[in-house]
Amino acid sequence: MTNSWTDIKNTDLVIIMGGNAAEAHPCGFKWVTEAKANRGAKLIVVDPRFTRSASVADFYAPIRQGTDIAFLLGVINYCIQNDKVQWDYVKAFTNASYIVKDGFAYKDGLFTGYDEEKRDYDKSTWEYVIGPDGYATVDDTLANPRCVWNLLKEHVSVYTPEMVERICGTPKDKFLKVAEMISECSSPTKVMTSMYALGWTQHSKGSQNIRSMAMLQLILGNIGMRGGGMNALRGHSNIQGLTDIGLMSNLLPGYLTLPTDKEADLETYMSTRGFKPLRPNQMSYWQNYRKFFVSFQKAMWGTAATPQNSFAYDWLPKLDLPGYDMLRAFELMNQGKMTGYFCQGFNPLLAAPNRKKLTDSLSKLKFLVTMDPLDTETSRFWENHGEYNDVDPSQIQTEVIQLPSTCFAEDEGSLTNSSRWLQWHWPGGTPPGEAKNDNWIMAQIHMRLKELYRKEGGKFPDPIVNLDWAYADPNEPTAEELAKELNGKALATVYDTADPTKVLAEAGQQLPAFAALRDDGSTTCGCWIFSGCFNENGNNMARRDTSDPDETGAYSKWAFSWPANRRILYNRASADVNGKPWDPSRKLIEWDGAKWAGYDVPDIAPTAKPGEVGPFIMNPEGVSRLFTRGMMRDGPFPAHYEPFESPLGNLVAPNIRGNPAARVFKGDLEQFAETASEEFPYAATSYRLTEHFHYWTKHVHVNAVLQPEFFVEISEELAAEKGITGGGWVHVWSKRGSIEAKALVTKRIKPLICDGKPVHVIGIPLHWGFTGAARKGFGPNSLTPFVGDANIETPEYKAFLVNIEPIAGPVA
Amino acid sequence: MNVELSRRQFLGAVGAGAAATALGSLGFGEIEAAHAAAIRPFKLVSTTETRNTCPYCSVACGVIMYSKGDRTKGERAEIIHLEGDTDHPTNRGTLCPKGAALLGFVNSETRLKYPMIRKPGSDKFERVSWDEALDRVVRLMKDDRDANFIERNDAGVPVNRWITTGFLAASATTNETAWETYKVVRSAGMLVFDNQARV
Fold it and tell me: What is the fold, at CATH topology level, of the domain defined by A666-807?
């Protein structure tokens, strides 16, 4: 979230699209209710199902899953055509006026530079014209036909209300009502918030779904505002933190990136990460990259990371591919190229797509290690559970080691919620049996592996035996010790660069914040964006002061919010170019003539003069991007692409199937149903229920009673067409797998008319498996295709094709 | 200790005192004592309160756990009740159908208690000690790492990667566990590394 749960109360309009907060995030949704009740805010829900969020909406519009970009670019087109643009914001705070290189174009669904064989682009033309002064060229009048604004205007012009209706199945009058309500928020004193979740991410163009809304929010001037923003409702309690700390193939903590094997040394690595300003006076905060990187290396390898060995640069593994994400991991397993796999609190047998491929893949491993408080399906993938896990254990040679871990109630530490709040919690219970907490387990793995290398020698033990491990009890680092490492400390006295007589931290002290980080090895910091969480003031994540001056919803003394305890990102943009709040009733910070001050920690240097330094300090432009240069794999603007499995072809680019830049492994393409398939005519989607959390709560008796049994949801119309009765059994199958379930026939799903043809939607909840207290069932992943988003490989769970028929069902 | 004074203990003491005074003033004397003894004390009075966060979705509602026994004093602590934290700015004491049933997660019958190993081709798990389990894990790791670790690529650049063993990290472990996990996994040279952010 750019903002926070408690900030939602400040909004005028909530749009829930790509999520279902009332059911999936009920206690956060309360803040929508608060905004509706106390300031007359309106709620719009756009979803294929009439969800419980929709049931309390002021306006609901249906949409076919996988067509959000067409809808949102349609809204942008509406705003441009009707002059519903926050012009002062767009001109000053976005790259609307930047001139784009001449070679760049978009035609028939493709941007310049496409290589069909590689399914990738040469992105060299997706860039600004750079002037002789080294800066990007701009035209403040927006008259130049090659400026971003005019290119955008042309790009979205095809998404007329009529085209939106044909693609999305949203009736034109409903689309126009939504567009009109949204466009009102182009006023500097009206603000919309976007609340989205996996309904947007789990598509082969998920990143561009989100980008489309971010662009709309910029055009409306809603980023950086109280009650505005892009608010990702993360699905799990600490998936924000896990991502922040970079537990992904290609990341280092704090959104730094791992070197590739083309970057042979530290200087080559740094040469593409300096991010020099693209406009005069801009902060371009990534210029500090080297400080973050060197401090991270010091946190990893302590005294063994020296200037002489480039701070142990060679000890980081180098990537030969864009990334080894979960989908690639299973692909490699399936090819027999992997030996071992660890699953820490993760149940991929139910969470990754194409279940049959997963079982085949896990069966080819030599070993699998699971660490979990619960008895997961993944740890028992080799066990026969009849139709629910139809395997022959004698044919599976994988050794499985199942390690029991503690749960939240027995564990200490911080979790980062969607609001970016790091909140500390304490253990209250004794773990059952011999269950151990993860800190102990991971320490044991490290200590014992290190011992083996010391005893036996072996391949390149240096990064293992030199890992900084100075904990009071090396067998079990405490949460406090680890939190202090994340914050960082001074290894030598750190002076203020602006005033060398001023000491920021004495050697050995915790650093006050990331501004104190240095690139000479005199500071250490595990994750720069968390710096300030545990400094000389103590554990700021454990703060429980509920004061909230003027009730802005900031709660700045509650826990710690990254970065720098800032509650609303880009809050400099809440004030106009001169530093006066766009809306005085929504003041966040303002320029008092000498410095920025207000309710929140300014997202800009406190003395950066308005008019000179732009509000988007992480970007070298100093402004936000409507045109995202070469930052995304599938285009600098979003474009409508159908899901890989779709009931109709791409109406704006008929020759394009799926997202042309999405990675597809050999063998998986053959397992996709053809477009407008007669064999698989129905558009399926997956979703959560309010009574269940993923695959965990089926282990909880109460939740297993509340929602005991797997079902699929269909419309009355489809039920009548297929002779299916409510509560009767159905067989649902895709090109990859087959499930049986009870049918829930509802009015919540209605057939959509897309390009003149009816499209039936089938909803498949995701909470059942073969372990736990609920009845055995299936998950949507028995059916879904093995393909991910072009940028970050989130599997396409929300849009795929199936067929359905009534069956007799099991004998009771 | 994170809870300085138990709110319920405080209220319990005040309530009992007020009742005794009222009855005493009416002259009931011993009846008062007998009556007080017959009332079962409020069941949470003798529990330890601990603040925690709901482990499910990313709203991260504050919860208060009530345990019999205080683990900070080395006692075995059994959580017997769990409710929303009314002081928490986000949830203000409310919990959803999942959070309200959290006690059932803590005490679920399918909580794992012992390390287990399933041998190749076997149809069952067998209980092992932690030492056996962990020694086996690192043996398998080291054998694979030593066999398949890539020190340099074809161009002779040090790449120091290990791509035949991978690690899927969680979605609900603490930041501190995540950091420790990062250190252990990356220092071994692993690149097949992901978390549950996507699903």
Answer: Barwin-like endoglucanases (2.40.40)
